[in-house]
Write a structure and sequence with these properties.
The protein is α/β, with parallel strands linked by helices and 276 residues long. It has 11 helices and 10 strands. The radius of gyration is 20 Å and the shape is globular. Ligand C2E binds next to strand 2, helix 2, helix 3 and strand 6.
């Protein structure tokens, strides 16, 4: 038994080593990913579910690592947050997503508002508001076509976050609460945040498939009462679409409509949708 225990220990040790070295590899690589032009933005449509109209897109970051291949933001965003690299990376995403939307406007593809994910680490950065303002000015982008997606973790520092969000809203952009229902929000705090819309977290939308839409229904009711727009995330089936429409949630995002796509593929999707 002693012998086995020892082997287990060695196995565990080397598995842990592997995880640690991948993390170190990513950490070092991420520092150079920006200058080496390895970051990509994919776009996922937000769809008006009763008409099929595309209301906008969400920008979702990818890292095309030269050796490890396409790396998910779920893996490298936490590293970017820990190291502070999320600040320059976040600026890059904002700038590029805006420039993409301007390109779609100028080439006649359409007016496609764009939503960008913002880490709480960015909200805490004292230059954030000025950075956003400068990017909007430098690009002459229509601020109402920009949405920032934040999460409930901003509630940890409610007063300061509220102050920052108010300044952002004064720039004329929109703010949405992402992953709603998974975090720290008390309804009372939520009511006092300057946000435009709420995104129902995928986990609740998943429940619809198991015939349990009660939380989704409660969130929709609450959003209506508080005058927030509402959008469902992670919509994958026709049944979910029907349930959401039956309960007055008209906007959705998910694989049922489209996965996140490179800009060029999204253009094809838009053109195909508008020709039906
Ligand atoms: P999120 O903001 O909640 O984005 C939704 C995630 O769900 C995306 O994963 C999207 O690809 C995925 N998704 C969308 N529809 C479906 C569906 O129908 N089924 C399933 N199974 N998944 C669906 P992704 O692209 O891997 O991004 C993961 C997370 O990484 C995002 O979650 C967001 O929190 C973060 N992230 C992505 N890009 C950025 C960024 O530029 N900045 C920051 N700070 N975070 C980012
Ligand atoms: Ca999001
Ligand atoms: Ca989300
Ligand atoms: Ca999420």
């Amino acid at each position: 038994a002693k012998e086995r225990g020892k082997n287990n220990y060695h196995f565990y040790d080397s598995a842990l080593d592997q995880i640690t070295s991948r993390k170190m590899e990513l950490e070092n690589g991420l520092r150079r990913a920006l200058e080496l032009d390895e970051l990509r933005i994919f776009y996922q449509p937000k769809v008006q579910m009763d008409t099929g109209d595309i209301l906008g897109v969400e920008a979702l970051l990818r890292w095309e690592h030269p050796i490890l291949g396409l790396i998910s933001p779920a893996e490298f965003i936490p590293i970017a947050e820990e190291t502070g690299l999320i600040i320059p990376i976040g600026k890059w995403v904002l700038r590029n997503a805006i420039e993409q939307s301007i390109y779609w406007e100028n080439t006649g593809i359409g007016t496609i508002p764009v939503a960008v994910n913002i880490s709480v680490r960015q909200i805490k950065d004292e230059d954030f508001v000025v950075d956003v303002k400068e990017i909007l000015e430098a690009t002459s982008f229509v601020p109402s076509c920009l949405e920032l997606e934040i999460t409930e973790s901003i509630m940890q520092d409610f007063n300061r976050s509220t102050h920052v969000l108010k300044q952002l809203k004064q720039l004329g952009l929109n703010i949405s609460m992402d992953d709603f229902g998974t975090g720290y929000s008390s309804l009372n705090n939520l009511r006092h945040l300057p946000i435009n819309s709420i995104k129902i977290d995928k986990s609740f939308v998943d429940d619809i498939i198991n015939f349990n839409g009660s939380i989704v229904r409660a969130i929709i009711d609450m959003a209506e009462n508080m005058d927030f727009n509402i959008i469902a995330e992670g919509v994958e089936t026709k049944e979910q679409v029907k349930f959401l429409l039956d309960n007055s949630c008209f906007t959705g995002q998910g694989y049922y409509f489209s996965k996140p796509l490179p800009a060029g593929d999204l253009e094809k999707y838009i053109i195909q949708c508008s020709s039906i």
